[in-house]
Structure formats: C-alpha cells, structure tokens
NAD(P)-binding domain-containing protein
Amino acid sequence: MSRVIHSRLTLSRYSSTWRGRCLSTESSKIDEPLKLEEAETVHVPPPPSEKLLVLGGSGFVGSHICKEALNRGLSVASLSRSGNSSIQEPWVNKVQWHQGDLLSGSSWKEALNGVTSIVSCVGGFGSNSYMYKINGTANITAIRAAAEKKVKRFVFVSAADCGVINYILQGYYDGKRAAETELFVRYPYGHVILRPGFIYGNRRVGNMELPLGVIGSPLETVLQHAKPLSQVPLVGPLLTPPVNVTAVAKVAVRAATDPVFPPGIVDVHGLLRYSQQK
Ligand SMILES: NC(=O)c1ccc[n+]([C@@H]2O[C@H](COP(=O)([O-])OP(=O)(O)OC[C@H]3O[C@@H](n4cnc5c(N)ncnc54)[C@H](OP(=O)(O)O)[C@@H]3O)[C@@H](O)[C@H]2O)c1
C-alpha cells in the first residue's frame, strides 16, 4: 500500500503546484506508512500581488464576490458604470472602485492595470438588441482587453439554459453564449464559466432589501434532487435548482484564484458541489 502511495507522490513531483510539498517528504523511506495529509487541501493565503477585478462589483452578485475575495485576503477592485456601491458596510471601503462603461471609450482599461484575475458579473435585461450588447458585446470587449493585458484568469458569470424561456430572452442567451465562445478562444486554459439558474440572497433594490431566499432556499433543497427532470427538453431546465449568492461568490473567487481549478463550464450542480467544499 505504502509503495503505491509512494509512486503516486513520485509522479506528482512533475506537477508544479505540488512540487514543494512532495519534495519535502522523505520519499526514500518506502516502508514507512506515508501520512495521507499529503492529499488534503491546504488553504494558503494568496500572495499580496494577487489582484482581482470584479466587472460589475456594484451589482447583486458582484458585491458578494468583492466581499468574499476580501475575506480571502485578496486585493479587490470593481468596474461599473456607476462606479460605486450603495451598500454601507465597512468592507466596501476596502474595494478600489472604478467608474467606466465597457461599451463606451477605452479609459476603463486603466482598471486592468496590475490585475491578475477577473470575474465578470456584467449582464442585464431589456430589448433583445440591448441584452445582446450588455451580456455579449460588453463581455467580449472585456475579455479581449484582459487577454491583451495578459490577465491570467477570467471567470464569467453566465447563465443556465432556461428551455422555452431561451426563445423569449434570445438576446440575453445569444449574448451569453457569444461571450463564452470568446472566452474559450482567448483563455483556453484560464477560463471558468459559471452557469447558475436563479440566484437568491438578499437583493438591494433602492433602499429596500428583497429576501429572495424565502423562495429560493426551499426550492434549492427540493430541486437539487430532481436532476433527471431538469434534462427533459424545453421544460426541464425550468426545474434547475436556484443557488445561493454566497455559494456563487465562493466558487467564483476560488475559480479566479486557484491555479488547479479546472477550466470549463460549471453548471448549477457543479456550483452546489464546489460551494460545499471547504
Ligand atoms: N441574479 C440572478 O438570478 C442571475 C441568474 C443567472 C445569471 N445571472 C448573471 O449574473 C450576472 C450578475 O447578475 P446580477 O443579478 O448581480 O446583476 P446586476 O445586479 O444587474 O449587476 C450587473 C452589474 O454589471 C454592471 N454593468 C452593467 N453594464 C455595464 C457596462 N456596460 N459596463 C460596466 N459595468 C456594467 C452594473 O453596474 P452599473 O449599472 O453601475 O454599470 C452592475 O454592477 C449577470 O451577468 C447575470 O446575467 C444572474
């Protein structure tokens, strides 16, 4: 048994992420039982040079991502048209707030200076052409600029397919998928696409807080066990479980900063699974 583990550790020497830890084991003593703590996740605070830019950090999901990233010791900046947050909590003062419109001019690109990873929460609703622009064009512009500035990782908060609703919100979904395609091309190894369904949590609208969890939380509990039903064409996607905004924020920050987080699409069930990991 110990020999098997030993050979796995020897193989894993070739992984740069684990190199330091593997080389510190006394691998010549093959008959001694090796400690399984080698396989455990170690939470090391990110180096101070890590800077996360949240596109749309003033919004519902973006503000939770800013807060989660600060809690994880990152340096955090946000870019949005309003340029600030309506939330009055102490953590807000630790975010570097940039004002700029991804669909207008290029001065917003200054916000990319020194940034190592990006999470984009830019999106919205309106006419089909507006939805395509805000969900698609704005994000495509950001992805291209980030790639030019050599930002290492780009996480995109996209959206799960919604069956028949896709036809009604065509500009929204076409825009999301166009941005995803751009991300595959520009960030083949450094992208993560999150595809949540309905995101619940306390949502601020003006001076009011809407407790969306009153509906979202029980629905999540019921629907996460109905995965086969969600695969029924057209209507199945309507049964996609809602997900808590804090879970989305946790996975987004991890995807943006953990070099071994695999690139690709994370669906709702993946979001729920990753968010339950420590
Ligand atoms: N909430 C959900 O249930 C849900 C479900 C699935 C997917 N999503 C996706 O998750 C993302 C975040 O959703 P959310 O509910 O947090 O939306 P939100 O509250 O409306 O936030 C959108 C953010 O994007 C910024 N923004 C919009 N247009 C911009 C532009 N041209 N340039 C720069 N910033 C811009 C907004 O700030 P300004 O208005 O100040 O610019 C705001 O900070 C969206 O892409 C959405 O499609 C949300």
About this structure: The chain has a mean pLDDT of 83. The CA atoms of residues 83 and 99 lie 4 Å apart. Residues 2-39 form one domain. Residues 56, 58-62, 79-82, 101-103, 121-124, 134, 138, 157, 159, 196, 198-199 surround NAP (CB under 6 Å).
